Amino acid sequence: MNFMDKWKTKLQHLPTQASIYTLFVVVTALSVYFLDKSVVAFLLLLGSLLLLYFTSFKNSVKWAVGGILLFIVIPFATSGGLAHESYMEVATQCGIYIAMALGLNIVVGFAGLLDLGFVAFFAIGAYTYAIFATPQANNFISGQLFPLSGSSFWLFILIGGFVAALFGVLLGLPVLRVKGDYLAIVTLGFGEIIRIIFNNMEKPINITNGAMGLSSIQPPNLFGLKFTFPHQFYFIVVGILVIVIFTVRRLEHSKMGRSWKAIRENEIAAQSMGIPLIRTKLTAFAVGASFSGMMGVVFAAKQTFIDPTSFTLLESITILVMVILGGMGSVPGVILGAALVTILNLQVLTELTNWLNQLTMNGTISIPNALSPSKMQRFIFGAILVCIAIFRPNGLIVAKNRKVDAEQLKAERSHTPVPVGQSTGQSGGVAK
Amino acid sequence: MTILKVAKLVKRFGGLTAVDGVDFAFPKGKISAVIGPNGAGKTTFFNVITGIYKPDEGEIELDGKSIVNVKPHLITSRGIARTFQNIRLFGSMTVLENVMVGMHIHLKTGLFGTLLRLPRNRAEEKRSQEEAYRLLEYVGLESLLNEQANSLSYGAQRRLEIARALATRPKVLLLDEPAAGMNPRETVDLIGLIKRIRQELEITIILIEHDMRLVMELSDHILVLDYGTKIAEGIPEEIRTNPRVIEAYLGKSAAQQGVIS
């Protein structure tokens, strides 16, 4: 016990932390670069970002180190081996899901509105770009202007976000009068309706090409540089993600963020504090949807092919799982939840399946066909979710309230007179 | 002078008329009490005034302007704030944040201001924190500012609701059973607080309360409801001896005996 305590105090020492952390990053990065079988090292390298969150460095230092890791260390370290593109693909997918989960977190975690059709906004973003970046749009706009060139992609990130936000508002207007379970059902319906509409909009005018999907979507183009590989998309996704995280952090501790949470906690009281219910909820829907829409555009450009099967109810549920697993209303939690679920599905479980398959082929072990790893993948995933739900019911990183320095407030407020009441005329920043 | 006036106010729920033709003028700068037996329609009366329910008939005027059919959040910005009988705090938010939510209508920062965080937005946020802190000092909760609201004691939660309502800078403050669940000492403190709010902040107070000691000590005017109708109004002395009031509370036989204590 004494030994443990000693280590604990040692670990709180900042230079010690810094050196251990640097060592960790260097070792994992080098192993990713030089080893052939480097999946574990790659995951540890990603884990260094999580570790960074728990260090006691200053916030600005954390951001700087995180930036270096994301933009330099990770892309460079993975470039050494054959698995480069597959690692970058995993990281890119992670980024896409994190942004979506952060969007849904605004709706579900902050505003407390259960949305089971969130993937619809992702689909709207994806189709917004796909329709105009393929010859598809020629079917309803004359002049053979399409496909638009890949340089329009950058503008479409904004347009996709905006269109998704617009649909968020359109959905919200009729829907937000219902609450709780009813809202969940209506949004579930909305998600399915959007998918089915995309599935059927090839008649009478062929807009979405129906179940055939849209192929050969123009890749993004930046001054002649074409983006086709995952390691290129990685930078786009991380760039957007940084903006998204920044936006969420600012909103969370603002008038808007407090209004969302107030509505979540108690609608009637929120209303009595002067918060307009419908407008505040619509803002939550719109902001959340816009993140999803932006990533939809990136997704369409990355896949170069989309069809309605990418946007099923299961996707909405997966995003919701990420939010709940990470911790509703907790930004670091949701980021962790989304990354974990994505990595688990794309890398860990598939690797495990491959490994077991290989063992079976070599005859080392024999697994009956009914229990074949490919069939067990979903089961293992489910079991992990159940375990987390039991042991961390409030999420992996529980949402924390921001603490305010009481002493500082006390010192500063004493310079001004008591502001209570309209009759005193002191307005605390209100322009009357 | 009248600040809030209701005339022939009616609110029905199906076959039940919860508020039945109530007329009353609440004098400015005074403390008025609304009393009556359980189910007399007092809280419904508050809910109609604050816009949570729409009245079926009648008129409500604040400073001479009608607030019938005005949305609840806009009624708040017209200058009516309230607390709730069954406490409705924002439980998982901090005490300070609860008060800051109350300042909502006085904060000008919009979506883009929040994202850009210009000096002006930053200053507004800082000022609102300071003001919230001063309000907490006013109700005596400043040492708990970083606590989660639902971790407070019952009496403290009631005081926090008052601080949050004051943060909207109301002209009229509606208190729905502010002393419910408080121990005698907390009630004494509460009486002091309400008096201070009236005197120092010049806010008109309307309260629903079952604790007769508090009602009689604080009120300048009393409105008595029973089955949704007004059965009496007047100063505490008149109400104390009013036979119809005693009858409503204690039954006919008691009415012949005398006085509510």
Overview in brief:
Chain A is an all-alpha fold and 432 residues long. Helices cover 68% and strands 1% of the residues of chain A. In chain A, strands 1-2 form a two-stranded antiparallel sheet.
Reconstruct the topology from this structure:
The complex is a heterodimer of chains A (432) and B (261).
Chain A: H1 2-12, H2 14-34, H3 39-54, H4 59-78, H5 84-110, H6 119-132, H7 153-175, H8 180-200, E1 221-222, E2 225-226, H9 230-252, H10 255-265, H11 267-272, H12 277-303, H13 313-326, H14 331-362, H15 373-391, H16 406-413
Antiparallel strand pairs in A: 1-2
Chain B: E1 2-13, E2 16-27, E3 31-35, H1 42-49, E4 57-62, E5 65-66, H2 72-78, E6 80-82, H3 95-102, H4 111-116, H5 119-139, H6 154-166, E7 172-176, H7 184-201, E8 204-208, H8 212-218, E9 221-226, E10 229-234, H9 236-241, H10 243-250, H11 252-257
Parallel strand pairs in B: 3-8, 3-9, 6-7, 7-8
Antiparallel strand pairs in B: 1-2, 1-4, 4-5, 9-10
Helix pairs in contact in B: 3-5, 3-6, 5-6
Domain ABC transporter (chain B): 4-252
GO biological process, one term (chain B): L-valine import across plasma membrane
Keywords (chain B): ATP-binding, Nucleotide-binding, Transport
